[in-house]
Each structure stands twice: as structure tokens, then as C-alpha cells.
């Protein structure tokens, strides 16, 4: 552990942020899995509903700086493409 007070604060702050980032990334992955599960089941209505929620969560994570904008765009593109393959 650090000796200087500001360094101790930094350690605590970085731990809090890391936990927050991890939780948000996990949440995004869960929503993406829900979309993929609906696509695998062939349920277009459920897939589209899950897609809108997933895109919203990805956008929120990007605005908080958890994902780079290109990463977010790639994730959105992939799940949207998967949903659009359903006829």
C-alpha cells in the first residue's frame, strides 16, 4: 500500500472505478447474450425487443467511457445484423 495520502486515495478511487466498469461491462454482455439467445430461438419479436435494450445499454456504457466508440459501433452492428437475419 502507498504511504502518501493522495496515493492511497488514488488506489481506492481506481478500485471503485474498476468495479464499476466491470459491472457495466458485465451488464452489457448479459444484454447481448439475451439478443443472441432470442436469435438462436428464432423469436424475432423478442430479439428486436432485446436489441433495443442492448443498444441502449451499449450507448450508455460508451458515454461513460467504458467502451471506445468504435467498439460500441462494432457490437451494435453485430447484434443488429444477427437480428436482421431473422425473416
From TrEMBL:
Biological-process GO terms, alphabetical: translation
Pfam families documented for this protein: Ribosomal_S20p (PF01649)
Cellular component terms (Gene Ontology): small ribosomal subunit
GO MF annotation terms: small ribosomal subunit rRNA binding; structural constituent of ribosome
Coiled coil listed as a keyword: no
Domain of life: Bacteria
Keywords associated with the record: Ribonucleoprotein, Ribosomal protein, RNA-binding, rRNA-binding
Coiled-coil positions: none
Role, per record: Binds directly to 16S ribosomal RNA.
Family that this chain belongs to: Belongs to the bacterial ribosomal protein bS20 family.
Name of this protein: Small ribosomal subunit protein bS20
Originating species: Lachnospira pectinoschiza
Lineage of origin: Bacteria, Bacillati, Bacillota, Clostridia, Lachnospirales
Gene from which this protein is expressed: rpsT
Amino acid at each position: 500500500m502507498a504511504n502518501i495520502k493522495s496515493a492511497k486515495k488514488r488506489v481506492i478511487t481506481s478500485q471503485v472505478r474498476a468495479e464499476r466498469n466491470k459491472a457495466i461491462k458485465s451488464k452489457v454482455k448479459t444484454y447481448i447474450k439475451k439478443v443472441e439467445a432470442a436469435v438462436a430461438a428464432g423469436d424475432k419479436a423478442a430479439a428486436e425487443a432485446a436489441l433495443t435494450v442492448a443498444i441502449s445499454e451499449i450507448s450508455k456504457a460508451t458515454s461513460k467511457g467504458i467502451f471506445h466508440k468504435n467498439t460500441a459501433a462494432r457490437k451494435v452492428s453485430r447484434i443488429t445484423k444477427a437480428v436482421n437475419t431473422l425473416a
